[in-house]
Amino acid sequence: MEIAVTAWRSEDGWSAPSLCGQAERAEAMGFHSYWLPENHFGDPRAIPSPLTLLAAAAARTQRLKLATTSYLLPIRHPIQAAEEVAVLDQLSGGRVILGIGRGIQDAVFEVFGLSSRDKRARFKTNLNTMLKAWRGEPLNEDLSGEPVCLAPLPVQQPHPPLWVAAFGPLALKQVGGLGLPYLASPIEPLDSLTRNYALHAEAAADAGHRLEATVPVMRTVFITPNNRLATRVKEKLAKALPPALQRKGVSVDEWAIIGDHSYARERIAHYVETLNITHFIGGGRLPALPDTDLLQSHEWLVQIGDGIDTPGDQHPAGESST
Predict the structure, then answer these.
(1) For the chain, how far is it from start to end, CA to CA, in angstroms?
(2) How far is residue 276's CA from residue 52's CA, in Å, rounded to a whole number?
(3) Domains in the chain, number
(4) 315 domain residue, yes or no
C-alpha cells in the first residue's frame, strides 16, 4: 500500500518556502505522493490553481508524486488544461497524478459564467478533448493545412494517471462508465464508501470495463499519544463538519483517524481489509498544531503503512496508475 499526504500547513497562505518545504519533508519521510485540492474564493488558504503550486514543489523534489484531488474540468478550456498538465508532467519528469472533478459549489460556476446543471456534460466533453490532445491527435489544421497537435505531450503516455473525485450516485456511475478509479470524499463514512465502491464497480462492469487495482482513500489523520490533544482535535473537526452531516449525527471517528499509534494502525488496517485499498492519503485540514506534533504524526503514518500488507490483487475498483 502506498502512503500519501496532503499539504498540512496553510495558515499564512501558500508561500513557496512553506509549500516547498512541506513537499521536501514529505519526500524525505518516504511518502509516495503529495496532494493538493482545488477550491475557490473567500479564504487566503484557497487553492484555485493547484498545478501552479505543484510546479513549485516539482522544482524542489525528485521522486515524490505530485497530485491533485479535484482539478475542476468544467470551468476550464480543455486544450489549455491539457497543455498545463502536460507541462507539469514534463517539469516533474513524469510525476503527476491528476485527480479530476466536476465541482459542487454553485457559486463557483456562477462566477465563471456557467450553469452547474451542465457540469457532468462539460466534464465528459472536456475530458474527451484532453484525452485526444494527450494522444497527439490533430486538434485542428493551420492555414497551410498542417495538423495542429498538442506540444509538449506528457512524459507519461498516453497521459498521467487519472483519478476521478465523485460524490453521489450519478457521479459514481459516470466515473465507472469511464473505467477510471474513483476518489472518494474524505468525509464520507466507511459504510458509505463500501456502497460507493460497489456502485462504481457495477457501473464499470455495465460499461464493459475491467478495472485494475487502484483504490485510493483519503482520511484526515492525526496520530498522537496525548489523549487530551486528540480529544481537542476531534472537537474542532466536529465543529467544522458541514451542517448537513452535523444534523445527521456523523461522528468524527466515522471519517477521521485521530488517536494513538495502535489505534491508527488498527483503523487503517480495517480500511485495507474492508476496501482493499492501494493508496492511503492522510492529512487533511487539521486545526492549528505545533509542527513537532504534525511531523511526528506523519512519521508514524509512514511506519504504519510500511507495516500493513495489502490483500493482493483482488480489488473492487481502480486502474493501475503508478
Answers:
(1) 12
(2) 33
(3) 1
(4) no
Q: Which domain holds residue 274?
A: 2-306
**Residue 35 and residue 67 in contact, taking contact as beta carbons nearer than 8 Å:** yes
Determine the pLDDT at residue 12: 66
Domain at 62, CATH number: 3.20.20.30
> Is position 246 within any domain?
yes
What are 294's three cell numbers?
504534525
Average pLDDT over residues 174-198: 92
Over its C-alpha atoms, the chain yields an Rg (Å, rounded) of: 20
| Residue at grid coordinates 519521510 | 29
- 3-class SS string, 123-161: HHHHHHHHHHHHCCCCCEECCCCCEECCCCCCCCCCCCC
- Partners of 163 in the β-ladder: 99
**pLDDT for 9 beyond 80:** no
Q: What dihedral do alpha carbons 67, 70, 75, 81 form, nearest 10°?
A: 20
Q: What is the DSSP string of 160-213?
A: S-EEEE--SHHHHHHHHHHT--EE--TTS-HHHHHHHHHHHHHHHHHTT----S
Cell digits of residue 306: 510500511
Residue 316 domain-assigned?
no
- Looking at residue 19, its amino acid is L
pLDDT, one tens digit per residue, over 65-89 is 999 999 999 999 999 999 999 999 9
The confidence score (pLDDT) of residue 11 equals 65
In a domain, 319, yes or no: no
Question: 3-class secondary structure for 20-86?
Answer: HHHHHHHHHHCCCEEEECCCCCCCCCCCCCHHHHHHHHHCCCCCCEEEEEEEECCCCCHHHHHHHHH
Determine the residue type at 247.
R
